[in-house]
Structure formats: structure tokens, C-alpha cells
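Hi there,

I know you've been waiting on this one. I reran it after we fixed the sequence typo, so this is the corrected version. Both the input and the resulting structure follow.
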Amino acid sequence: TDARKRSKSPPPVKATVSAQDAADRTQIWFAKFAEERAMPLLAEVVKAAEKHGLTATSRLRELDGRPAADLVLVPRHLPPNARPPRLTIYAPGDERPLEIEYTGTFPGVGVDGGFGAEVDYDAIYPDQLEEKILGFVALATGA
């Protein structure tokens, strides 16, 4: 009888984490990561670009309600009204902790090596960030 009473008790309740709590933690982690790691790398790119006579800016902004780090690099001879190359880094909350987007108009992408629009997305791990930034710079400058 005593054993029967114990078997009827409900199983122990496991601590659950809501999807919103997980998303909030991810965004808090990314905000710190962006401040400590991403933005210093982007600031280095801006300084290097300016030394070579290019216009570049970086900033931390909000994208769809979540923090994002941006780098805009304006290549020489960008056609009028063309959107300059933009690199955006944010935390999508999926399998990999970072999402990288390249958008804008890039030299060497268009017909006959001219300027052409490019959009690229990639989910990466934090240790791949520097490589992706360098890839963006090469694409944005036509190097």
C-alpha cells in the first residue's frame, strides 16, 4: 500500500525555460559580445578604410527589436544612388549564435566586373567572425 501511494505521485517537475527567456538571454549575450568583440573589429576596419581614402562607418543599432552591429564601407566609384555595401551582425537565436548579412552594391559583382547588388546570409560561430569581416571587406573593395 505504501509503495502504491508512492507510484501514484506525479513525476518531479523539471525546470523549464520559456522561449522568450532563452531569446532574452541570447540578446543580452549578443549585446555584450558586440560591445566587447564585434565593434572593436569593425572600428579597426573603419580606421584602415579611412587610411586608404575610403568612407566607412560602424555602429551598434537595433534591428527588428534586437541589437545588431553594422559596418558600411563605401567603395570608390560607387554608382550614384547605389546602396553601399553593409555588413550586419546579429544573434538569430537559432543553432549558431551569430548571423551575418552582406547587402548592398559591390564592385566586381555586376556584369563585366562592374557594380552589382549582392545579398548573402550566413550563420556562423563567434570564432568565425573575423574571417567573415575580412571576406566582406574584400568583396566591398573589389580586392
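Quick highlight: The longest helix spans residues 19-51.

Best,
R. S.
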